[in-house]
Amino acid sequence: MSHITWEAPFCAEGANCFRIGTDTEGNAYIAVTGQEDRPLTDSREALRALILEIKAGKADHLL
Length: 63
Prior knowledge:
By secondary structure, this protein is of the alpha+beta class. It has one helix and five strands.
């Protein structure tokens, strides 16, 4: 696995924290804080699309 540069943790209410990271090969990663050794990975474009859809409210029904 490439070296991942992690952003600061994002925490919602309570202890639900996750981190977003990227590597120099164009991959993006999401991991639960403290479990960065087991991230989900996809392209940066896929991560960008996911974030835009969440911001647009398309995941609100999951809350």
